[in-house]
Design goal:
Layout (H helix, E strand, L loop, with lengths): L3 E3 L16 E4 L3 E2 L6 E5 L2 E4 L3 E8 L10 E8 L2 E8 L12 E7 L5 E2 L16 E3 L10 E4 L11 E5 L7 E5 L6 E2 L16 E5 L4 E9 L6 E8 L9 E2 L9 E4 L2 E4 L2 E13 L7 H6 L10 E9 L35 E4 L2 E8 L7 E8 L4 E5 L4 E5 L2 E3 L3 E19 L20 E6 L17 E17 L1
Parallel strand pairs: 2-29
Antiparallel strand pairs: 1-5, 3-32, 4-28, 5-27, 6-26, 7-8, 8-9, 9-10, 9-11, 12-13, 13-14, 14-15, 16-17, 17-18, 18-19, 20-22, 21-22, 22-23, 24-25, 25-26, 27-32, 28-32, 30-31, 30-32
């Protein structure tokens, strides 16, 4: 496993005015994938933590699946993990009759089964795992999600968008994620290129439905992402392009934006970064790998995007989050595309999934493993470093951190007033040394974890680290 560091330099102003309102984080968990909370960081870095490749969880080996399966979605619903993907056994244009929407299910996010559903006849049999067929071109990029809106109609607990530019995006609903029907024959979103996985969800923080969809940037002609919103999943606003700050424009084939399950106010996108014309595998090599030569001329990897709403993506890390890896099979066109969905698969572990060997007989879905909250961290070397947050207010009785140190490493937490002076009883010297590797460690100051006297009071958090990583913080009840 490799790690990528980004040195971030911020300076703490000597004067903080009341015009700069403290950030109210309440009791929500905050991960360090951006600089949103950070006022100053010195000697430490924001460090990307790419996931670790694990086992193959699904082979696309059924006659109706094949080398050109695409646009995978993984959803955790209680004790079940539901997996959706396009079946496409032959190379063809977008939205052809040979496309279908397939389904697999798991109870642990590791071992998936393809149930015989008997819903549609495909290639002469109903003994298949197909949940949508004969709706071309809507199986091309059928993109479902579990609607977490508090007052959602149980008959529409699952929703989906599907379609291409000639049709627009058509809305589907389902009570169980298996039996689907159109919400309307007319498209609900009619703008955008749409030749990708156009993803939607209910935003708890913004209180409306969001859709992140494929567009092209007219200035750079690169594949990019736009966004629109809806209150009822039927009437949508005009699309607005997402902006990426002062970063190099790159082709983003899929965006896979979804709320992080432990911090749903932060939307995490693990996007396929497409490198058109960047050839690693020759046509002759592709033939030896039993692949389609048409899909040998490009390569791709995946990058980490985050957004806290609105039309801004944060690209703190331009480096790859998922690399193709050793071997030529994953250096072909349109492979390494991530599935939509990061899901918990253990108390200290979460998983995501990626397509491997696209356009080849060996095409499959691989699981990748991450530490809980472990997209990125504040990392300090042996020499030490520290960060200071912007002023913030919180609700909660204690501070809980997700962290890891070496045997020689340490973390200390200091709580400061807005002007940067330590709060008596919560200074760095009062903090009990934090050593170890835990997802949840309650911080104590001379044995005292209780912070109720500071609830609602603007404070700064200063973290002093040595050979350590800080992944997340939360002021918990």
């Amino acid at each position: 496993m490799y790690r990528v560091s980004l040195v971030v330099v911020f300076f703490l102003s000597s004067i903080h005015t009341w015009a700069d309102a403290p950030i109210a984080i309440g009791s929500r968990l905050e991960i360090f994938t951006d600089s949103y909370l950070i006022q100053r960081i010195d000697g430490a870095t924001l460090q990307l933590h790419p996931p670790t490749p694990a086992e193959t969880v699904l082979k696309f080996d059924a006659p109706w699946e094949g080398e050109f399966v695409g646009y995978v979605t993984v959803i955790q619903d209680g004790e079940l993990y539901r997996l959706y993907y396009r079946g496409m056994p032959e190379a063809a244009g977008d939205g052809t009759r040979i496309e279908s929407t397939c389904y697999a299910v798991s109870t642990d996010g590791v071992h998936f089964k393809k149930p015989n559903l008997g819903l549609f006849e495909v290639q002469g049999t109903r003994d298949n795992n197909v949940i949508l067929s004969g709706f071309e071109p809507l199986s091309h990029n059928f993109a479902p999600f579990l609607d977490v809106r508090p007052d959602v109609d149980p008959a529409q607990r699952y929703k989906a968008l599907a379609g291409i530019s000639s049709t627009g995006l058509v809305a589907f609903v389902s009570p169980d994620g298996i039996h689907w029907q159109k919400l309307s024959d007319e498209a609900v979103i009619k703008q955008g290129a749409l030749d990708s996985q156009n993803v939607a969800f209910w935003s708890e923080s913004e209180k409306h439905y969001l859709c992140y969809l494929r567009t092209f940037d007219p200035k750079t002609e690169v594949r990019t992402v736009s966004r629109c919103t809806s209150q009822d999943f039927v009437t949508w606003t005009d699309i607005e392009p997402m902006e990426f700050g002062n970063t190099t424009p790159e082709h983003l084939y899929t965006n896979q934006t979804t709320p992080y399950f432990r911090a749903p106010h932060i939307y995490v996108g693990i996007a396929a970064r497409f490198m058109p014309g960047r050839r690693v595998v020759s046509e002759e090599m592709m033939a030896r790998m039993e692949g389609n030569a048409k899909y040998s001329g490009d390569c791709s990897d995946a990058v980490l995007l985050t957004t806290r709403g609105g039309t801004h993506y944060d690209r703190t890390f331009m480096e790859a989050f998922i690399r193709p890896g050793i071997g030529l099979n994953n250096w072909t066109s349109r492979t390494n595309y991530p599935a939509r969905g990061v899901v918990p698969t253990g108390d200290a572990e979460m998983s995501m999934y990626v397509q491997r060997n696209y356009g080849q007989k060996s095409h499959h879905l691989q699981r990748l493993v991450m530490r809980t909250d472990g997209f990125a961290s504040v990392n300090a070397p042996y020499a030490g470093g520290e960060l200071v947050t912007k002023p913030l207010t919180f609700e909660g009785k204690q501070l809980v951190v997700n962290f890891a140190t070496s045997a020689a490493g340490s973390i200390w937490i200091e709580l400061q007033r807005e002007d940067g002076t330590p709060i008596p009883g919560f200074a760095r010297e009062d903090c009990d040394e934090i050593v170890g590797d835990e997802i949840r460690r309650t911080v104590t100051w001379k044995g005292n974890p209780v912070l109720t006297s500071l609830t609602g009071t603007p404070v700064r958090l200063r973290a002093v680290l040595r050979d350590a990583d800080l992944y997340s913080i939360v002021f918990a009840n």
